[in-house]
Amino acid sequence: MSKTHRITVLAGDGIGPEVMDASMLVLDAASKAFSITLDKDVQLVGGAAIDAKGCPLPQETIDSCEQSDAILFGSVGGPKWENLPPDEQPERGALLPLRSHFGLFANLRPGVCLPSLTHASPVKNELIPNGFDVLCVRELTGGIYFGQPKGRHTGEDGDITAIDTMVYKKSEIERIARIAFTAAMTRDKRLTSVDKANVLQNSILWRETVIEVAKDFPEVELSHLYVDNAAMQLVKQPDAFDVLVTGNLFGDILSDEMAMISGSLGMLPSASLGSQNDNGLYFGMYEPSGGSAPDIAGQGIANPIAQILSAAMMLRYSLGENDAASAIEAAVNHAIDSGLRTGDLFTGKDGEKKVGTVEMAEAIAAAIS
Ligand SMILES: NC(=O)c1ccc[n+]([C@@H]2O[C@H](COP(=O)([O-])OP(=O)(O)OC[C@H]3O[C@@H](n4cnc5c(N)ncnc54)[C@H](O)[C@@H]3O)[C@@H](O)[C@H]2O)c1
Ligand SMILES: CC(C)[C@H](C(=O)O)[C@@H](O)C(=O)O
Ligand SMILES: [Mg+2]
């Protein structure tokens, strides 16, 4: 019997529409193969919404998301909107409010370097003969992104002060730590908490709280790293990590690093989750970890895999369609293993074939069974 799910599709700006269209090819193939009916409501967000409606997050977009089981998001922002007042720009006016409005505090970013892609990684290949698989759990609705006060003022001496405030409540740290420990229990049972507890009050509370939560997960081996050391260790030996848990800003930075060492920023999907419902599913927003890539937008060369794997995460976490999610992940691996490479992954090695966004998506869609 066909199951129906409703999703809101927000392609956004830059490469967003290109990789979103590509992910639709794959979602349609998976829906057909697994008898899933997806009711897709396409809405405007970011710069595209500013251009068409005068604001980055129109009310009808929020209304649509509220009526959906999940949001599939492309990316927002770009040079065209960079000179608008900060709160009217796509990132601060749409993306952050969506995360906050829907309470999407848990951001899962799985950085996987496939064995067949190790040569595309800037990390020395002999260090990662089997690739690696690291899950970054990033807190997404707190920390310096949202803390108050925030702003700027000019003092009597004419000097300008800009203020951002890093705030974490113990309860916010506790809930993201539980998500990370729970994820570690399904993997290799090793969790590294990343902070800056040698300097920041926030991080001292972070570390204390993570240690307390660890008592409920005695099987998980917990370690702590300062963020500067973590950034270094990730490049030195990425396969030494299993799960990372960290705050909003550190997670943003480390996840881009993790994406690149897995081959390309265009490979890293993400799930931003709120609370779990009675069926064990989450309302969530699913998006590539990278951005609108204005430098390559409009050329049909962007890597669609982060968007496609984000759609797979949506099927798993919000729609409960685990078989379809696994089939998409297997199809992505198949396309990579068979040598297909968008430009960001292409190294010229024997057996590689350079393809565009659509060709990559068509190959992935065709491999779904
Ligand atoms: N979730 C989001 O909507 C999101 C995330 C990050 C950045 N942004 C926004 O995107 C805009 C550009 O930011 P940026 O240039 O700092 O970061 P970016 O992530 O857009 O691009 C960084 C580099 O990675 C490359 N890249 C990213 N995704 C790729 C893909 N799928 N395939 C191939 N190459 C890819 C780009 O070409 C670029 O060279 C800014 O407005 C920024 O705020 C949005
Ligand atoms: C665009 C920006 C606000 C966003 C963030 O910093 O969270 C992005 O970099 C990400 O990683 O999702
Ligand atoms: Mg980022």
UniProtKB/TrEMBL annotation:
Q: Which cofactor does it need?
A: Mg(2+); Mn(2+)
| Principal location class | cytoplasm
Which positions in this protein are listed as binding substrate?
A: 99, 109, 138, 228
Where do the annotations place NAD(+) binding? Answer: 78-91, 291-303
List the molecular function annotations (GO) for this entry. 3-isopropylmalate dehydrogenase activity; magnesium ion binding; NAD binding
Q: Where does Mg(2+) bind?
A: 228, 252, 256
User: Which major enzyme category is it?
Assistant: oxidoreductase
Q: In which pathway does it act?
A: Amino-acid biosynthesis; L-leucine biosynthesis; L-leucine from 3-methyl-2-oxobutanoate: step 3/4
| Enzyme Commission designation | 1.1.1.85
Q: Which reaction does it catalyse?
A: (2R,3S)-3-isopropylmalate + NAD(+) = 4-methyl-2-oxopentanoate + CO2 + NADH
Q: Where is the Isopropylmalate dehydrogenase-like domain?
A: 6-364
Q: Which Pfam families match?
A: Iso_dh
Keywords in alphabetical order, please.
Answer: Amino-acid biosynthesis, Branched-chain amino acid biosynthesis, Cytoplasm, Leucine biosynthesis, Magnesium, Manganese, Metal-binding, NAD, Oxidoreductase
UniProt remark on cofactor binding = Binds 1 Mg(2+) or Mn(2+) ion per subunit.
Marked site, Important for catalysis, at: 145, 196
Where found, per UniProt? Cytoplasm
Provide GO CC annotations from the record: cytosol
Q: What does this protein do?
A: Catalyzes the oxidation of 3-carboxy-2-hydroxy-4-methylpentanoate (3-isopropylmalate) to 3-carboxy-4-methyl-2-oxopentanoate. The product decarboxylates to 4-methyl-2 oxopentanoate.
- Subunit annotation: Homodimer.
What's the family?
Answer: Belongs to the isocitrate and isopropylmalate dehydrogenases family. LeuB type 1 subfamily.
Protein's UniProt name: 3-isopropylmalate dehydrogenase
